[in-house]
TrEMBL record:
This is Elongation factor P. Belongs to the elongation factor P family. The gene is efp. Residues 67-122 form the Translation elongation factor P/YeiP central domain. It comes from Membranihabitans marinus. Involved in peptide bond synthesis. Stimulates efficient translation and peptide-bond synthesis on native or reconstituted 70S ribosomes in vitro. Probably functions indirectly by altering the affinity of the ribosome for aminoacyl-tRNA, thus increasing their reactivity as acceptors for peptidyl transferase. The lineage of its organism: Bacteria, Pseudomonadati, Bacteroidota, Saprospiria, Saprospirales.
Length: 188
């Protein structure tokens, strides 16, 4: 058993009969009253984000998780299939356990969080940025760059994003997976 002084970003805890990932936290010691810890927790099973305040010294139940590197192979109607890079063992993961699957292409390297004691996958995390080829976008109009105007574009995984007007079909762009925002055009 641990207490609130052990809370840190990335810690996985058992809270309200669910597994939560600590996204952010802040230890607060007001001038009057008792100290407390404000946390932002993300449910591993549902993806819901919860703000919760723990009293200082409150007991928490940490869960040991392991991060393992996997390669995305393919998907079917029920699950995504991955291969362990070290043992070549394959694992199928429910589609709900993957954050932002629209940016995942075959052979992409991902991290899967495993519950250490139960040896079961909890969540699939994509890299922070991915590079994808633009398969379709309308041509930009010359001289229309006075504002930060953007246009829709479809990338090779089928996801639709917003890109600047100078991006053309077959350009490779860097995308932030968490937000789906365009970052930059990749030089080739």
């Amino acid at each position: 058993m641990a207490n609130t002084s052990d809370i840190r970003k990335g810690l996985c805890i058992n809270f309200n009969n669910d597994l939560y990932h600590v996204i952010d936290f802040q230890h607060v010691k007001p001038g009057k009253g008792n100290a407390f810890v404000r946390t932002k927790l993300k449910s591993i099973t549902s993806g819901k984000i919860l703000d919760h305040t723990f009293a200082a010294g409150h007991s928490i139940d940490p869960v040991r998780v392991e991060r393992r590197n996997f390669q995305y192979l393919y998907s079917d109607e029920y699950a995504f299939h991955f291969m362990n890079n070290e043992t070549y063992e394959q694992v199928a993961v429910n589609k709900e356990m993957v954050d932002h699957p629209e940016f995942m292409k075959e052979s992409e390297q991902v991290e899967i969080l495993f519950h250490s004691e139960e040896e079961r996958p909890l969540v699939v995390e994509l890299p922070q940025y991915v590079e994808l080829e633009v398969t379709y976008t309308e041509p930009g109009v010359r001289g229309d760059t006075a504002t930060n105007a953007q246009k829709p574009a479809t990338v090779e995984t089928g996801a639709e994003i917003r890109v600047p007007l100078f991006i053309n079909q077959s350009d490779v762009v860097k995308i932030e997976t968490e937000t789906g925002n365009y970052i930059e055009r990749v030089k080739q």
